[in-house]
Amino acid sequence: MTLWQRLRSIAHSDFSDIVVQTELLLSTAGRVRKLRIHLLDGSFVDVWLSEEGDYAFHWERRFVDGTLYRHDNAPHWRWKSVSTFPKHFHNGTEDHVTASQISDSPSEALEEFLSFVRTKL
User: Fold this and answer.
1) pTM of the model
2) Is it the case that residue 54 has pLDDT exceeding 80?
């Protein structure tokens, strides 16, 4: 089972109460670009992982209630004062950024993030 398949399995089996469906979005080269997880309220979570260890767990809610939530480790120098830099958490908006304690393991991070989502739905 590939990592992407494992992540899909976690979303479907452990979060079936909030997950409607999942899809793997492919690049033009046919490689998995990200996992999109469709949720009960019409919003979605995108999971993006690179081979170099970069990641983003992004919950898009701007069209639902104007919010977004994202853990990522892109080294945006604007957030260099965050204690967990380059890891950081966009908490409700792009500009409200706090420390990110999300796991470095993609499987654990997805479980943590979807547990967070569950508490907000």
Assistant:
1) 0.94
2) yes
